Amino acid sequence: MVCSLINILFSPIQVSEDKSLPKSMDETNHSWVTEFVLLGLSSSRELQPFLFVIFLLLYIGILLGNCLIILTVTSDARLHTPMYFLLVNLSLTDMCLASLTTPKMIVDFLVECKTISFEVCLAQIFFLHLTGGGEMVLLISMAYDRYVAICKPLHYRMLMSRRVCVILVLLQWSVGFIHTVSQLAFTVNLPFCGPNQVDSFFCDLPLVTKLACTDTYVISLVVVANSGLLSMISFLLLVISYTVILITVRKRSSASMAKARSTLTAHITVVTIFFGPCIFIYVWPFSSYSVDKVLAVFYTIFTPILNPVIYTLRNKEMKDAMSKLKSRYLKPGLVSAAIRNVLFLERK
After folding, report:
1. Mind spelling out the 3-state secondary structure of 16-32?
2. Domain ranges of the chain
3. Cα–Cα distance list, 43 to 38, 40, 66, 69, 293 (Å)
4. What DSSP designation does 332 have?
5. pTM for this prediction
């Protein structure tokens, strides 16, 4: 369905049918943009191999870390709870978000001409805002889960039933879908006839729209009204929910307060790293984009790799489940036997 929608959105972009250019433009000298050039993170050739190794390792860490979370939660029946159900969806969303930009960036470190076709560029924008907007809603759902568990523990099973969890995940993707379609509807018909250099390592809405051969002031307002408000409102809701949780726990025992403060501090760190760059990029679309590509690294790469660390290493239940998983698949006897076989073959 999504692919069909993208094809429908792309279909109006035809050279023979477009009438959006000013009449004063000489059509004989006009050339349509069929691809964009990504300038990447750095233009220094000396840094390219170093950046290639760094981001390749980070991407491998994202995939392995989030896959480990999914495997651990699905294999341990004790973790089949609403909290870990949402955590698995967060891991899936993080892997999708990182995979939309990081592989292309890694490959571009090895090539001279970093190009991306017009259609793929718009598809990248579509899926980035689909997953990014959805993750904002998912983080709010996770904060709501913690609020119910701590502030209304007697009603937790009713308020966070399996049906409610499924609704929250459906709401995540529904909001992300509406968010991205509402913005692309204003972007897909823009005329692109001149500059085609995107000063980033991926296509993003503010960067691409400013290359259009028309006034994009209204589009910038749409970005503020859509992406900017979604980021701000989501961030404020998360801050309010975590504040209420901390106030509630403060009235209880000091031990529970210390545990909740440690957990919530980690969650707030992830929220800040994810929402901070988003708010800066999308709330001020009229400003310079010189630092946007650096900030974009935080919510496309650093947040997906921080989530496995924060939600597992600081969680006793996850660490116990991982130890159980390790002992199940990596039995000491099997490991010792494998080592003895390797040594025996080397001697021969």
Report:
1. CCCCCCCCCCCHHHCCC
2. 36-314
3. 11, 7, 31, 36, 13
4. H
5. 0.80
Which superfamily does 36-314 belong to? Rhodopsin 7-helix transmembrane proteins (1.20.1070.10)
Q: Is 204 helix (H, G, I), strand (E, B) or coil?
A: coil
The token pair that represents 56 in the structure block: 């390749």
CA distance 151 to 245: 7
What whole-number distance in Å separates Cα of residue 260 and Cα of residue 149?
11
pLDDT of residue 32: 80
Tell me the average pLDDT of the chain.
79
- The C-alpha angle 238, 155, 86, rounded to 5 degrees, equals 45
Q: Which two tokens stand for residue 211?
A: 């290359």
Q: Give Cβ neighbours of residue 115 (< 8 Å, ≥ 6 apart).
A: 35, 36, 37, 38
Cα–chain center distance at 73: 21
Burial (CB < 10 A; 0-12, 13-18, 19+), residue 204, is buried
Q: What is the pLDDT of residues 211-242, one digit of tens each?
A: 888 887 888 788 777 888 888 888 899 888 88
* Residue 53 pLDDT greater than 90, yes or no: yes
